[in-house]
Amino acid sequence: MRNGGVSFWWQQVGLPSPTDRLDGDVTCDVAIVGAGLTGLWTAHYLHEADPTLDIRVIEAEFAGFGASGRNGGWLSSELPGNASAYAAQAGEDGVERLRAAVRATVDEVIDVAAREGIDADIVRSGVLHVARSQAQAERLDGELSATQVAERIRVADAVSGHFDPDCARLHPAKLVSGVARVVRERGVRIHEGTRAVAIEPGAVVTDRGTVRASVVLRCLEGFTAGLSGHRREWLPMNSAIVATAPLTDAQWREIGWSGAELLGDEAHAYCYAQRTADGRIAMGGRGVPYRFRSRTDVDGRTQDWTVESLRSTLTTLFPSLAGVAIDHAWCGVLGVPRDWSASVSFDPATGLGHAGGYVGSGLTATNLAGRTLRDLVRGEDTDLTRLPWTNHRVRRWEPEPLRWAGVHTLYRLYRAADRREDAGLERTSRIARVAHRVAGR
C-alpha cells in the first residue's frame, strides 16, 4: 500500500513539478493566492469577462496540491454549510436561492469541462445516501426502502435510502489540472513553488518577491491558517481516503454496484465513496480530525489506524470484500469556519477578497464561488452577489489548547453517538445533539 504522495489521483495521472516560479517583484491587475479550484475558477471567469486583465495566481506547491486534488470526487448539490446560519442572514428564501445555485453549478462544471476538453471521468450518476440504523433512517427520511437500496447497491444492513440525481462522479486531479491548463492557455500566470507569507491591501508578499495588485483574493481554503494573521479564521479539518485494488467483475456483481453513483451514509462520523473509472472503490472519512495549532500534512500521509478504520468501514458495508487489498491511502484538509458555513467576500475599498470554508462540499461550491468573486470584483449586482454566503461573517475559532481539545472531544462524542445508534438506539443520540451544540452546527 502506498501512503501519501499527495493523493492516489495525482499518482495515477503523474505528480507535477512546480513551474513558473515568481522571480522578483511584479505588478498585475488581480493577484489570487492559492491555485486550487477556487482560485483557478475565479481566474477563469475573470479572464472570460475581461481578457485584458493581467491575472497572477500564487501557489506554494503546484496547482491542485490541496483539497482540489485529494477529495472524494463528489460533484454534488449539497449545501456548503449550515442552512440555519444562512437563513439568519437572508431568510429561508435566501437558503433556497443558494441551494438552487449550487444545484445548477453541477451542470455548469460539467458543461465547462465538455467545452474545454477536460476529460475528468465525469459521470452524472447521482448519489445514494444509505441509512444503516433506525436512528440514521430517522435523520435521512429517505424515499427508498431497503429493497430499493439493494437494487442500486447491496449495502449490508441497509434500512432505507435517498437518491439525489444532481451529483456527478469525477477524477479530482484530472479536473483541477484541466482547469489549470485552460487558464494558462488564456494567458493567466500561475506562479507555482511560490509561498505567500502575508496578504495586505494592494500586495501579496511571498518568499520570492512581492506581487502588487489593486485586487488581491485569498483562495486558500484549508491552508488559510498557515497565512500570517489567519490561524483562527478557518480550522483545517482533516479527512482521509483509501483506494482499493481494482475489483473483479465477480466482486462488483456480488455487491451490486453496477453504475457510477456515489455512496454515502448517515453516520455522524460519516463515510463517502465512489466507484472509480478504473474499477476501484475510493472511500473516505475522518481520521485525525485536527492537528494542534492548525498544522497541516506535508504530502498526504495518514495514520495506519486511520487506514484500518476505513478498511473496517468498507468491509462493514460490503462483507464480501473482506481481504480486498488497499492500494493507496492519503489525507488532506478542508476549511471549516466557526459556524460551519462557507463565505465569499470582497471589499472594494481595500481590494481584498476571499472565498472558502466549504466544510467538505467544495468541489461544486468552488465554481460557484469563482463566479461570485468575478461579479463582486467587477462591481456587478447580480443574483450571485445576493446569495446569503456573500460577505457572510463569523467569529474566529477559540485559541489553543481549547481549539484542539474541543475538536477532538467533538469527534469522540460523534463516534460514541454512532456506537449507541448502531447498538439499537432508534433515535438520534443525545450525545450527538450535544456535539452539534458544541460545534455550532
UniProtKB/TrEMBL annotation:
Task: Give a GO cellular-component term.
Answer: cytoplasm
- Ranges where the FAD dependent oxidoreductase domain occurs: 29-376
Pfam families from the UniProt entry: DAO
Q: Which InterPro entries does the record cross-reference, listed alphabetically?
A: FAD-dep_OxRdtase, FAD/NAD-bd_sf
Which PANTHER family does the entry link to?
A: FAD DEPENDENT OXIDOREDUCTASE DOMAIN-CONTAINING PROTEIN, SARCOSINE DEHYDROGENASE-RELATED
Q: What is this protein called?
A: FAD-dependent oxidoreductase
The organism named in the record is Nocardioides zhouii
